[in-house]
Each structure stands twice: as structure tokens, then as C-alpha cells.
Amino acid sequence: MQDQGRKAPSDRGYRRGQRTYVILGGLLVILPELLVVLLGSADPILSTLSAVLTSTALLSLYSLFYFRTERKYRGVSATLTDYFRSGLSLYMISNILIFFTLGMIYLLPRFGLATIIYVDAVFAPLYLVLARFPIGLRVGGRAEPLTDTKILSATKEMAQRMDVDNVELYTVDWRRFRTANAFQVGPRRFSIYVSNYLLDNLSSEEVNAVLAHELAHARKRHVMKSMALIFFPTIVEMDVLVLGYVITQTNLVLGSIVFAAGFAAIFLEPRLAFRFQRRFELEADVIAVRTMGDGRPLIGALEKLSALNIVPNNKRSLTHPSVAERIRRIEQLSAGDLANVK
Ligand SMILES: [Zn+2]
User: Given its phi and psi angles, is residue 315 left (phi above 0), alpha (psi -120 to 50 degrees) or beta?
Assistant: First the structure.
């Protein structure tokens, strides 16, 4: 039995543990960057060394706390190395920021406005790589093509009705992390990833509902829209920062205003983008329910997923509305005439 030796889950303890490793993850990205900003122009070598060391130390702490929390409260069988590996993407972001900022500090005084070319040349390809990130899951041996013929034919049938082409299904091995999840990637060629832990625990109707939801994301090109909402404004905002800095050399007040505007936009714009992302989730739910002609399988799936992943029903995340809100919307649909829903 999978559940043997598992401690009774204590929600509050688990929340506290989660908060600790989420904060450590945030520090992993922010602290090294701060060191470079503060020390970079005074001593590039010392600041790089201390930033990379800080980043590495924080990666270790993050993995350790993540691992201990998940093992204690959820009885995962994944190892510390598994969690270390899962922290590597944050570590990568942290180090890209360190070297990107050093590049800015070096280039800005010498090249002025032309530094914008550097900003765009670094960020544009990076975004393309990130959009294709789950390829990394396959390369890392975590994902393989889904072979269950029942799931494949049900998906094919739904995809046809939703007018979605170019869909490939993969399973991700997250059984040892006890993570039940599914997601769609690719802005034009669509890949849907489903964790084997989700397939273990949901009925076939519920799995179909989850896949209908992911197909709806593909149908509505939500990945492409999210990229447009998050990535491209970031490039423009970084360019505005460079522009602001260059203007300060001749007009301190105007330059500072431009710089401050770019800085504020970097913090405020993602809030707007995430608001749209939560709307995309509700939109995908509606399409999934209309495709299935029944809201109950999706409601069942959402309830099971939040129980399996120990996510409170009333808690929304940055990118997803709360399960309670999603269920309420679906119930409103199921009660009315589905054909008349906009
Ligand atoms: Zn979704």
C-alpha cells in the first residue's frame, strides 16, 4: 500500500512548512540579485562570487525544507535529490538574473541606449525556451507519450469536436511526489501533460473532464495569450529602464521619472496578466463542460485534485481561481441550458 507509514496530515503544519519553502524560493531569486545591484559596479568579481554562493546556499535550503515538508505531511517517496532537481529551474532564473544584471552594469555606461539591443537579445530567446520548457521534462526522463488507448481515443474525439489539431499527450512521472496535475504547453503545437498520480486517482470520466479543460486551453490559445501578456511587456519595461538611465545622464528629473515608471510597470503589470490567467481558467472550464454536456465530472475532478494536492478549496493561486469559485461557476452552467451559455 502506498499510504503505509504516512503521518496523519496536519493542515496547519503543512501550510507553515509550505510557506517556509515558498519564501526560501523567493529569496533564492531576489537576494543574489540584490547583492549584484548593490555591489556590482564597485566590485564585479566579489559581487558575482557572493551572489552565486548565496544562490547555491538558498537552493540547498529550499530543497531541504521542500523535501522535509512534503515527506512529513504528505508521505512522498521522492528523495532529497529529486527536490534539489526540482529547484534547479529557480536556480537557473536566479543565475540568469545575476549575469544579466552584471551585463547591464557593464554595458550601460559604455553603450547607453544601444544596451536595449542586449536586453532584447537576452530575453526574447529566453522566452521561447521557457514556452517549450516541458521538453525538459521529457529529456529528464520524467515524461513519456501516453499510451492508454481509451484515454487517447476519448481525447481524439473531444479534440475533433472542439476543432483542435496537433495535440500530443504525455504522462509525467510524479507518483513519488504525490502530485496530481495536468497542463498544456506550446503556443501552436499543443502538448498536454498529465501526471501518473492523477491517472491513478481519478475516474475515467474525471480524467476526460481534465483533458477537456486542457484541450480548451489549446482551443483558446491561452499559452500564446499568456506569453503575450507576461513576456513581451517585460521586454518593453526593461527597455524603458535602460532609456530612463540614459536620460538621467543629461536630465536627472525626467530620467528618474521614466526609470520609476518602468520599475512600477514591472511590478504592476504581472498582476494584470495573472488576472487574465485566472479568467482563462474559468473560460476553459466552461468550454470543457459544454463539450462534455455535463458539469459533474469536472466538479468531481476539481474536488479530488484539491484533496490529493492538499490545496484548500477556498484558496486561489496567482494563476488559478479557487476550486470553490470554479465549482460555483460550473454549477451555474449545469443548472441552466448549456446551449444558451455564451
Ligand atoms: Zn487550466
Answer: beta
How far is ligand 1, taken at its centre, from the CA of residue 80, in Å?
Answer: 29
For residues 317 and 307, is the Cβ–Cβ distance under 8 A?
no
- SS3 of residue 168 by DSSP: strand
Separation of CA 158 and ligand 1 centre (Å)? 16
Q: What sign does the dihedral 171-173-175-179 (CA atoms) show?
A: negative
Distance in Å, CA 34 to ligand 1 centroid: 34
What is the whole-number distance in angstroms between the Cα of residue 222 and the centre of ligand 1? 9
User: How many independent structural domains does the chain possess?
Assistant: 1
Strands 190-195 and 143-145: unpaired
CA of 185 to the centre of ligand 1 (A): 11
From the CA atom positions of the chain, what is the Rg in Å? Answer: 23
Per the domain annotation, does 56 fall within a domain? yes
Ligand 1 centroid to Cα of residue 293, in Å, is 18
Greater pLDDT, 25 or 224: 25
Domain ranges, residue 41: 1-112
The pTM score is 0.87
User: Is residue 89 assigned to a domain?
Assistant: yes
Cell of 179: 502530485
For position 132, what pLDDT does the model report? 65
* CA-CA-CA-CA torsion sign (197, 201, 203, 206): negative
State the Cα–Cα distance between residues 209 and 193, nearest whole angstrom: 14
3-state secondary structure of 257: helix
**Residue 52 CA to ligand 1 centre (angstroms):** 35
Distance, CA 125 to ligand 1 centroid (Å)?
25
State pLDDT tens for residues 118-158.
888 888 887 777 766 665 665 566 789 999 999 999 999 99
252-292 and 296-308 helices, crossing angle to 10°: 120
Burial of 93 (0-12, 13-18, 19+ CB in 10 A): middle
Q: Is residue 151 part of a domain?
A: no
Ligand 1 centroid to 227 CA: how many Å? 15
Cα of 253 vs centre of ligand 1, distance in Å, is 45
Distance from residue 207's CA to the centre of ligand 1 (Å): 13
Is 197 among the domain residues? Answer: no
